[in-house]
Design brief:
Chain A is an all-alpha fold. Chain A has eight helices and no strands. The radius of gyration of chain A is 21 Å and the shape is flat. Chain B starts with 7 loop residues before the first helix and ends in a 7-residue tail after the last helix. Classes of the chains: A mainly alpha, B mainly alpha.
């Protein structure tokens, strides 16, 4: 039964935004936590740790996110867990985001001049203190613009959760389109809603980057 | 965990999987080539076009970069037929990929054009070279060298994100996997193997691109 696109359909799409935002937030927090570990492992002095982190990053950056979501979704069943699409999407996106954030932050940690490491260890700081008081505070400043830029990537990535059946914005669009058969209107609105979430972040990221470029010139 | 792995379904449909992988490669290369043409035109328009042209190109780039690829595919595949343009899934997939990669590549190419210092061009002209010669001998190679790494990683991103076009059932690798999966129910095995195929493809292409880089651009420059 085809029904007309009404205000209710629009409200349904609008309310699906909260799921996109919630999934993005969870994936970002999870990805940031694991990503910090990956970034530290990538810059570690121990070769085996470095190699393991490199392998992790290669694996997640060398395969499609969609496959990663499928593997988490079906892999959980294999292990006898019954993961719902919500948990599978959150877990898959967390793993994926951690690899990308890990690689972004590795660059930021390595952007801190080597002399700072040497000075800190000459002052008697061991690794935890050296990282906490000397390296990370400086790396964070470099990391802010690309991290905000990555958030845009992450919000867009959550649309793939629609394919494993999690009802976020894109899936809501499919549902409304199936009922109203107005693809241009429905996916147009969906696109506009994503744009409204992502564009401010893109602008912010570009602005921060310019400010940073000026500061270090 | 009492699950027994069974790769028979995967082995039985091996050539079907390879066909899918081949279409993935073809789609990616085709989309990249066409996307580069779009990008070169847009980059020229953005750096030297009149204001309205710049404005339109900027809008195109911002819209594509701030909306998900999946939604772009849906707009093209489901949206265009309502305007009377019917597309096969493969063609819709190709168009969506070109539109998408065109926007990203425009910014890369623009950065490449802008990376050439004005003084170099002026010096060339002062030496009596004609503009085309300046382009041929001074601009093109360093510009390519600057954008090459970004373009090649964009290609690999494009290839990986092409798995998303399975949502409209184009016949590429992921769709093939979905088909085998729905006939045999060996989902986990199939997706592991397909993920492996993507990984191999990505590594093969990075190695290939790195090799080309060494052959074409391995000369010392001191621009710092």
């Amino acid at each position: 039964m085809i029904r007309a696109f009404s205000y209710n359909e629009f409200l349904f799409l609008l309310s699906a935004v909260q799921w996109t935002l919630a999934l993005s937030a969870i994936a970002f927090v999870g990805g940031a936590t694991v990503g910090l570990v990956i970034a530290l492992a990538r810059t570690s002095d121990i070769k085996a740790v470095r190699l393991a982190a490199t392998g992790y990053i290669q694996l997640f950056q060398g395969t499609p996110l969609l496959m990663q979501l499928f593997l988490v979704f079906f892999g959980a069943t294999v292990m006898g867990l019954d993961l719902n699409p919500w948990a599978a999407a959150a877990l898959g996106l967390t793993l994926n985001a951690s690899a990308f954030l890990g690689e972004i932050w590795r660059g930021c940690i390595q952007a801190v001049p080597r002399g700072q490491w040497e000075a800190a260890s000459a002052l008697g700081l061991r690794y935890p203190g050296l990282m906490r008081y000397v390296i990370l505070p400086q790396a964070v400043k470099v990391a802010v613009p690309p991290t905000v830029g990555f958030l845009v990537q992450l919000i867009k990535s959550t649309s793939l959760a629609a394919i494993i059946g999690f009802t976020e914005l894109t899936r809501a669009g499919q549902i409304v389109n199936n009922a109203t058969f107005q693809p241009f209107l429905v996916f147009g609105i969906v696109a506009v809603l994503y744009f409204l979430m992502c564009w401010p972040l893109s602008l912010l990221s570009a602005r921060l980057e310019r400010r940073y470029a000026l500061a270090t010139r | 965990m009492n699950y027994t792995f069974d790769f028979k379904a995967v082995i039985d449909s091996w050539d079907y999987l390879l066909q899918g992988a081949w279409l993935t490669v073809q789609l990616s290369i085709g989309a990249m080539v066409l996307g580069l043409i779009v990008a070169i035109l847009c980059a020229l328009g953005k750096t030297s076009g009149p204001k309205p042209v710049r404005w339109i190109i900027n809008a195109y780039i911002e819209v594509v970069r701030n909306t998900p690829f999946l939604v772009q595919i849906f707009l093209i595949f489901f949206g265009l037929p309502t305007m009377g343009i019917r597309l096969s899934p493969d063609l819709a997939a190709l168009i969506a990929m070109v539109v998408n990669v065109g926007a990203y590549a425009t910014e890369i190419i623009r950065a490449g054009i802008e990376s050439i210092q004005k003084g170099q061009i002026e010096a060339g002209l002062a030496l009596g070279l004609r503009p085309l010669q300046v382009f041929r001998y001074i601009v093109i190679k360093p510009a390519l060298r600057t954008v090459y790494p970004a373009l090649t990683s964009q290609f690999i991103l494009l290839m990986l994100s092409s798995s998303v076009v399975s949502a409209i059932s184009a016949d590429e690798l992921t769709s093939v996997a979905n088909n085998i999966q729905s006939q045999t129910f060996r989902s986990f095995e199939i997706y592991i193997v397909v993920t492996g195929i993507y990984l191999v493809l990505a590594m093969m292409f990075s190695a290939l691109f790195a090799g080309i880089y060494k052959l074409a651009f391995a000369y010392d420059t001191d621009r710092r």
